[in-house]
Amino acid sequence: DAKTTQPPSMDCAEGRAANLPCNHSTISGNEYVYWYRQIHSQGPQYIIHGLKNNETNEMASLIITEDRKSSTLILPHATLRDTAVYYCIVRVHYGGSQGNLIFGKGTKLSVKP
Amino acid sequence: GAGVSQSPSNKVTEKGKDVELRCDPISGHTALYWYRQSLGQGLEFLIYFQGNSAPDKSGLPSDRFSAERTGGSVSTLTIQRTQQEDSAVYLCASSPRTGDSPLHFGNGTRLTVT
After folding, report:
1. Å between B99 CA and nearest CA of chain A
2. Is the pLDDT of residue B99 over 70?
3. Percent of chain A scored above 70 by pLDDT?
4. What 3-state class would DSSP assign to A60?
5. Pick from B39, B38, B35, B40: which is nearest to B23 by CA?
């Protein structure tokens, strides 16, 4: 079973920031938080990952709480092309399942004009 | 550069027939994964290959499912005696190595069993 909890759906106005929450209260010390998204009829696309520090790349920012029990993915200026299902995943990097990703149901983000 | 390539993109088969799905990973990627996604559902792990190690087959739903990876590159997922519940999108992913590398996914093969 997935170890994360996400709201099933969210709306966001085009041009505004989209903040997608994720709860992972049972996360272990050696598990990273990963975010992927899946646009209709395509395979999942990697967005960002982190362990405990906040991370930023050209696509998004990842904010992880100090206790690591939750995180937020931020798309700073959402566009219509960001409409997708967003998956939050916890993943151990070494050992165990050798880095397998366990997907939950994700959050369906709808960006509206 | 070229991403993960899967073929065919769509496959319709009759119940009871065997099917083969192909995955060409990104060149140089040593780890390869197969997932499937049923309509409106999340991704379900099937099998994982890493280099020359024995594959992790823990996600295969029945002995009708098998996969191989030849020469550490191309992989084939075979489903024997297909059933209607096998209808799904079958996704392949690869990564440079196991562990801390993000997975790169193909766009999948949509399998329909009639």
Report:
1. 4
2. no
3. 91
4. coil
5. B35
A103–B99 CB contact, under 8 Å? no
Mean of the pLDDT values across residues B43-49? 91
Using DSSP, state whether B1 is helix, strand or coil: coil
And the tokens for B50? Answer: 């890493």
Closest residue on chain B to A34 (Cα): B102
CA–CA distance, A88 with A5 (Å, rounded to integer): 8
Helices (H), A34-89: none
The C-alpha atoms of residue B71 and residue A2 are separated, in whole angstroms, by: 33
- Distance from the A95 Cα atom to the nearest Cα atom in chain B, whole angstroms: 8
Q: Which residues of A touch B107 (CB under 8 A)?
A: 41-43
Contacts of B95 (CB under 8 A, 6+ apart): A99, B29, B30, B31, B33, B101, B102, B103, B104
Q: Strand ranges (DSSP E) for B38-114?
A: 43-50, 65-69, 75-79, 88-95, 104-105, 109-113
Mean pLDDT for chain B? 92
Mutate one of A100, A102, A108 to test the B interface: name it (highest B CB count within 10 A): A100
